[in-house]
Amino acid sequence: MRRDRLLEVGVQVGGGDRRHIRRHRVVGLLAHRFPGRGDLACSLPAVHAGKHPHALSGRGLLPVQVDEGVRRAARCLAGSGLRLVPATSPPALGCRLPHVDHGSANDPAGRSRRDLAGCVRVVGVPQLLRARNDPGQYDDLVDVWWDLSGPFALLHAIATARADLIPPASRPGAVLVDLACGGGLLAPHVQHLGYRHVGLDITASALRHAADHGVLAIRADVLTLPLPEAIADVVVAGEILEHVTDLGGAVAEACRVLRPGGVLVLDTLADTRLARVLAVHIAERIPGGAPKGIHDPALFVNRVALREACARGGVTVVLTGLRPSIPGLLRWMLFRRHRIGMVRTRPTAVLFQGRGTKEVPR
C-alpha cells in the first residue's frame, strides 16, 4: 500500500451558457488509501438522499439541484473533510468527463453542454495526504519557498530578524549550522558575515533551494545530526523546535555540535493558549498564509523546559518576543507586494527568539 494521500478535487458548477460556468476548486484531506497500482479506490457520499455518485476513480459526477448547486456541493464535500474555495481557472485534470442532464447519474453521455446547469463534476488528482505537522507538507510547497507573496512570507521576515542575532564570524573558516534550514531563507542575510553556511533539513525538495542559495545542504533529522561535536561557531534553530516531538533531544544535539564560546540562536512558538489561537486558529485561516495543519499546537514549546534543556547543554539563553509589524502584515494581506517587518517585544507568549553563548570549560 502506498502512503495516505491528499485528494485534490476539481468541482465545476455552472448554469446556462457555457460562458457563464463558474468553476471552483476543492482541496481537502481524505483518509483513503491508494492501491499499489495508484488508482483511487473510494467514493464520495451522495449529495442528497437517494442519489449515489459514480465511484471516484478519475471520473465521477455528483448530481445537485440547479438553484442550490454551490451550497449542496459545499455541504457534501464538507462531510468528506473537503472545503470549497474559489479558483480563477479549472484544475488541470488531464481528462474530460461527460456532461449530464440536471444531475442524472444514469446518463453518462449527457445530452447537451447547455445541460451542465446543476451538475457538479468531481475528478480526483492524487497527492500526498498530509496530517498535522507532517514535514511532507513542505514538499507540496516546494515551488513557493522564495515567493514573498506566498505562504512563506512570514518565514522570510522571521529569517531577517533571526539574522540580527548572529554575530560576524570570529575566525577564518567559521561554521554556521542552520537546523531545519528549509529553502535557505537565512542565506542572503548571513552571506556577508564570513561563515561557511551548513544547512540541515529532512525535506530533500527544500534542500535543493537551499543549495541554490549557497548553502551546503545535508539531509538529516535534527534529533540525529551527522556532525561531530563542537564543529559549529553558530547553531541556528529557526522555526523548528515547535515541530519536534523530543524538545530535549533536539536542543541537546544543537548544543553538542556547538563549540564552547559559540552562539545558539533560536526562534519558535510558545506553548500558550494565545499562541494556539493566533498561530493555528487565525493564521491558518488567512488566505494565502500558513497552510492548514502546518503546526501541531501540542508541540508548541514550553519556555521553562526550553531554558532548562539549553542549560543542560551549557547554554544560558535570553528570550525576547517577536511579532509581525501590524501595518506590514496588513499591507501584505491586501497587496502581497510588501515584506512583512518584525517587531521585538517584551512578552514571549506567542513567537519568541532566544540567544545564548555556550560556556567555556575552565
Total domain count: 2
Strand content: 25-35%
- In DSSP terms (H or I, runs of 4 or more residues), the helix count works out at 9
What is the H level of CATH, i.e. the homologous superfamily of the largest domain?
A: Vaccinia Virus protein VP39
CATH architecture of the largest domain: 3-Layer(aba) Sandwich
- What fold name stands as the CATH topology of the largest domain? Rossmann fold
User: Alpha-carbon distance between the termini?
Assistant: 57 Å
Outline the low-pLDDT stretches.
1-71, 76-129
Overall mean pLDDT: 72
Oligomer: single chain
Main sheet characteristics: 8 strands, mixed
What is the CA-based Rg, rounded? Answer: 24 Å
Walk me through this protein's architecture.
This protein is of the alpha/beta class and 362 residues long. It has two domains: 5-128, no CATH class; 137-358, Rossmann fold (3-Layer(aba) Sandwich). It contains nine helices and 13 strands. The chain has helices at 69-78, 137-140, 153-163, 187-190, 204-212, 247-257, 273-282, 303-312, 326-335; strands at 5-13, 22-29, 60-63, 82-86, 119-128, 175-179, 196-201, 216-219, 232-238, 258-269, 315-324, 342-345, 351-358. The protein has an eight-stranded mixed β-sheet with strand order 8-7-6-9-10-13-11-12, sandwiched between helices. It has a five-stranded antiparallel β-sheet with strand order 3-5-1-2-4, with helices on one face. Strand 7 (196-201), helix 5 (204-212) and strand 8 (216-219) form a beta-alpha-beta unit. The longest helix is centred in the middle third of the chain and has 11 residues, at 153-163. It starts with a strand and ends with a strand. The model is unreliable at 1-71 and 76-129 (pLDDT under 50).
